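Changelog-adjacent note: as of this version, every example in the card shows the full chain rather than a window. The one below runs 102 residues end to end.
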Amino acid sequence: MPEGSHNAHPILDGLYELHDTVGTGGFAKVKLATHILSGMKVAVKIMDKRQLGEDLPRIRLEIAAMKVLCHQNICKLLQVLETDTKIYMVLEYCPGGELFDY
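Full-length structure tokens:
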């Protein structure tokens, strides 16, 4: 069920409609979302900066690398949004499970 406009992620309002959680990790949650203007399905990786702690520079390095990577086997980074407490990485939605499942 989509999260409404009164959600915990107001920075996404008007841009993306969040759906179900498709993955979780140590300091991130990944939600399926729909880009409102295009209707394209995307994955939104939501990270809490307070939980990242010393890993925050590594995440910034990951973002910088993903901005320049372009390969058919790597999900494309479409957009990065940031608030005082959260980082949102909008990624190409690649269904089919985790890489570690293979």
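Structural remarks: The first helix runs from residue 49 to 52.
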